[in-house]
Amino acid sequence: MRFSMRLTATLATMALLLGGCAGPYPGAGVSQQGQEIKWGRDQNPPAAKVTGLNSWVEGFKGRARSQGISASTLDFAFRGVTYNPEVVRRSQNQAEFKKSLWEYLENAVSEKRQTNGRAALAQYGGVLSRIEATYGVDKEIVAAVWGMESTYGERRGDLPLIESLATLGYEGYRGEFFRSQLMAALKILQSGDIDPGHMTGSWAGAMGHTQFIPTTYLAYAVDFTGDGRRDIWSNDPSDALASAANYLAKSGWQRGLPAAVEVTLPPGFNMALAGKGKRRSVAEWQSLGLRQANQRPLPPAGTSTELIVPGGASGAAFLITRNFHAILRYNNADSYALAVSHLADRLRGYPGLANPWPADHPGLRIEQRKEMQRLLGARGFDTQGVDGNVGSNTISAIRAYQASRGLPVTGEPSAALLEQLRRG
């Protein structure tokens, strides 16, 4: 995903788990919080869709057998699988809305995520230190990826993976992509790392603590605990965290190098020098007047870096290194790589950005967004929570409010909307 100030809204995972399968994973039939899980799928999916999926699966089995998947694996994998309309609904309901880099970073590197990240570092410090020693990836970076991907394991995804991928593959969603993920998932099952009842993830097939899709799992997942399984799903995050570090290491991570460092620009700086591909050493940038913005030190003088100024001249500027590009291999959005880098710095104890929000930016700060959600709820337009995140529920509430007042129905939060809500 290219960074163009447009980010896809994150979908909450539904509580759905295949139960009753034998295997070494405790808690079958209960959620990660220990509560009983309901199926969550439509109890009566369209008969034509069920029949169509069954026929499609039989055809896919032939393709899988030609790639070495055994009959016993196929029988085990597809047992109980049926068409899941909820998966299709989620695939079609990815509300996309404009969100500034600053709003994204404020959510991604929230105080709660920092606090929980420090707790995770304290709890798993020994494991993360061993991972850092093995793969050369800073433990804070690995923890930051963990926080970004699954909120430190709280949101690993509860949908049965084979059923989700089969449904999407049958529907032809995104062409060959989901069919290739289904094939990879079958290879994972055949390897014995997981059983179908515990192979869960998001509607799109992202799995476990670090949200690997099946093909990424096959390429980069590791057995760090030495128990014979590459287990990224269970409550123990060791294998998942090591897998993320292995992915970054094989994507070009250089030990001891920051991914992104905020800098200040001199007055009248030539902005044409900024941009990816326009590499200079740190010493060269310093000769042009760039300076360290806060307590975070610059990379060594000879390091090849690029300057990005994603918010324009009035926003924060960053020198990025090869490690920034390694993070982009994980998620190809500058916003994501900046969030991981900055969250890791906060977990190390460095301060926030020196210039996090351009004064002329029209967006709402997180507390203002929370106030907007509270006021919408008070006026009968439920946002399904007051968390400052402008997702599909909040957008729907804004649209309903605007329609009720005869306003242009945009669904977009704004200072003008907040002021109108304040007035009643």
Automatic annotation (TrEMBL):
All copies of domain Peptidoglycan binding-like, residue ranges: 367-421
Signal peptide: 1-22
Source domain of life: Bacteria
Domain Transglycosylase SLT, residue spans: 54-345
Cross-referenced PROSITE patterns: PROKAR_LIPOPROTEIN (PS51257)
Keywords for the protein's UniProt record, in alphabetical order: Signal
Methyltransferase recorded as keyword: no
Keyword Signal: yes
Biological process, per Gene Ontology: peptidoglycan catabolic process
One Gene Ontology term of the molecular function aspect: peptidoglycan lytic transglycosylase activity
Cited InterPro entries: Lysozyme-like_dom_sf (IPR023346), MltB-like (IPR043426), MltB_2 (IPR011970), Peptidoglycan-bd-like (IPR002477), PGBD-like_sf (IPR036365), PGBDSf (IPR036366), SLT_2 (IPR031304)
Protein name (record): Lytic murein transglycosylase
